[in-house]
């Protein structure tokens, strides 16, 4: 019987929480493991045009471009939301925020997280005999039972939320720049916009804070015996941006380009590790959680094609949080030598929502009963040459105009309808006015991918598409109303903030000697533990 051994070497963790996983694989025995392994890599705030294979002006993604040349690249692939927590919840549940309850981001002081009655991809694969691990940004709750170890992951190493949600000793590039963590007691500082100054960014290993604020460190764990799911939540390309040793560049590239090059190197290391010894039995799926924030705020990156006049209010707005294509159309590459055909570009309409049902099917597992799913099994696209994905996708409001989670943007084949636009915060801090549209704006993306000019409401094309849009929107809302839906707890409580030593300024500590559980306070009175699994 064959045994697959996975070694995850975390050779560096920067002060920004940028995790550098090196993955080594080796086989012993005579036959291949019967079930495939899965590596899901989720980039943070990476634009569609940040992938060189998508946008020729991008020169910093050589490894991803090679992976696309050897695998399948998706050009009409979408995040399930335009901000962090809802997109990640959708990936792990295969359900939109109106079903899984996660409609906007969780905070440092959030009491809740991904509702406990939701079933995650990791939990399904655990039941199917997989060992599961996560490295990187979680962002689905950290207080009490909302930690990743209680959501199906045998092992976790990373940060509980975005790396701009806690101070560090060496802040990276941001606009405006953030101050370093305070080192001695004094009056509370008034933070600049988007800067958290009083609670340091923690680094967790399972349920234990091992550093606060996070700094360079190393850790190694080895594993054996069972097929695995590895979920890597990269901190790249979220601000603040840094230039670490892996992104050192004698050409003096701009911070965004250097960070992109660094991220690409990490993905290349994971791919190379799989190729060395598990090339035919490990499926890598790379994509992003939502569109970019940093690029259009003067931190130098390729803006890509999604910059139509309807999208950019005065002040220069990033795409993140909006339902314009730049907010949710993300790069995506599938790589599985011998299974997924190489050098293929797919125009199938797909989504991060599809990762859950596709991986479950490939693992030979079953979808959880008693709930409806918004994703589809993309196996026919991956292996059968089909160009048919979704007929309809819904893009939830994600922090710009409209109520959180509401489905007021509808993709119907090549058409896209907006019932509300605006409300996005510009780079200068101003917020554009929200504008409702009844009847909706409708764009033909085949002719106008930049969403620059909506169809004339009096045209035959508009009049033909409008009733179809209204019908599919009414149908999904009716389906959600009859579904088993969850409600996330968005209560805030300062006691829920992760703090390994409340007696130290900014909760500063190095390698806590005892497990520290979020919300347990100084007493640390919870007794649950999570040991590293035998990967």
CATH topology: Alkaline Phosphatase, subunit A
- CATH architecture field: 3-Layer(aba) Sandwich
> Could you name the ranges where pLDDT drops below 50 across 5 or more consecutive residues?
1-33, 216-224, 300-304, 307-317, 512-535
Strand residues, percent? 15-25%
Strand order of the largest sheet: 14-4-13-12-3-11-6-7-8-9-20
- Identify the CATH homologous superfamily: Alkaline Phosphatase, subunit A
**Biggest β-sheet description:** 11 strands, mixed
Under CATH at level 1, the class stands as Alpha Beta
What is the distance, rounded to the nearest whole angstrom, between the alpha carbons of the first and last residues?
17 Å
Query: What integer is the average pLDDT?
Result: 81
- The string of secondary-structure elements, in order, is EEEHEEHHHEEEEEEHEHEEEHHEEEEHE
Q: How many helical elements?
A: 9
Shape verdict = globular
The rounded Rg comes to 22 Å
Structural class: alpha/beta
